[in-house]
Amino acid sequence: MTLTGTALPSDGYRRVEIPALDVRHLSAGYNGKLALEDVSLSVRAGERIGLIGPNGAGKSTLFRAIVGLLPPRRGEIFINGRTDREARREAAFVPQFEDVDWEFPVVVIDVVEMGLARQIGWFRFPNARHWAIAREALARVGMADYAGTQIGELSGGQKRRVFIARALAQGAHILLMDEPFSGVDAVAQMQIMSILDDLRSDGVTIILATHDLNLAASHFDRLLILNTRVFAYGPPDEVFKPEILAPAFGGQIAVWHREGEVVMLTDQHT
User: Fold this and answer.
1) Of 191, 125, 139, which Cα lies nearest the Cα of 169?
2) Could you tell me the pLDDT band of residue 216, with boundaries at 50, 70 and 90?
3) Are residues 71 and 165 in the same domain?
């Protein structure tokens, strides 16, 4: 926890800000192999965190552990100061594009309503209130006009926006996004970033995994550099340096700025 504020309230104590997300000494993995080892980080409400690291670094594993899809081997995960199952529902996971079956015959609003599954209940149908929540979520991401469209007919950027709407319908205050810009064009990326800007102004906390280093260097409050363990966590201008990135990415690396862009060369595929 962090202490905030400079003035003391009338009781003489400083107010304590409870982190939106507090991961403490987390180790997790699959089939007896650790993908994460002793990972700790604290995220304030409304922050936007960029998560970078090579393929297989444990980024998706971290997200799955936070939302409860993967039980930790060790460590604790606090969401708004709590560890119970209800607290986990305040975080929503937007998976990688490749992890979704886009051929499944379902329309957009049905996808969004999946975020309301716990509210609706098993073997029950959504009511008017659930439909209103789903439509409002679609409107927030500019997809209300596509409510009846088959999900497979949408562009890559539109599909990402639908999954953001599903997370919003769930009522999540923490949004975990796994490579949302993979395979989308520059216009779609700008549209998604604009949505994320609006969500941050609403106090939504965002952790976004990306391989786009230009994006990582310029659009986040802090960067988490991960490769099984945490190599660095802090403001981009403090951690986005060759001497930090090189060991994290497992090879020789060079980083420099050219015409407003960040250029990185590495001897390994990232």
Assistant:
1) 139
2) confident
3) no
Amino acid making up residue 144: A
Between residues 230 and 117, the one the model is more confident about: 230
CATH number of the structural domain spanning residue 29: 3.40.50.300
DSSP state of 266: E
| Domain assignment of residue 263, yes or no | no
Residue 63 has pLDDT above 50, yes or no: yes
pTM of the entire predicted model: 0.83
Strands 91-94, 174-178: pairing kind? parallel
Element housing 37 (H / E)? strand 33-43
Residue 56 resides in a domain: yes
Domain count, the chain: 2
Nearest to 218 by CA among 208, 204, 232: 208
Please indicate, yes or no, whether residues 120 and 133 belong to a single structural domain of this protein: yes
β partners of residue 76: 24
CA-nearest of 205, 210, 250 to 60 is: 210
Given a cut of 80, whether residue 70 has pLDDT beyond it is yes
> In degrees rounded to 5, what are phi and psi of residue 113?
-65, -20
Asked whether the predicted pLDDT for residue 212 surpasses 70, the reply is yes
pLDDT in tens, 154-205: 988 899 899 899 988 888 899 999 998 887 888 888 889 999 999 988 899 9
**Do residues 239 and 223 touch, judged by C-beta distance below 8 A?**
yes
Instruction: Write out the residue range of the structural domain in which residue 153 sits.
Output: 105-171
> In the structure encoding, which two tokens stand for residue 114, read together?
């999946």
Query: Are residue 166 and residue 178 in the same domain, yes or no?
Result: no
The verdict on 78 and 128 lying in the same domain is no
- Alpha-helical (H) ranges within the chain are 59-66, 85-88, 108-113, 117-120, 128-140, 156-170, 186-201, 213-218, 236-239, 242-249
Q: Does pLDDT of 235 surpass 90?
A: yes
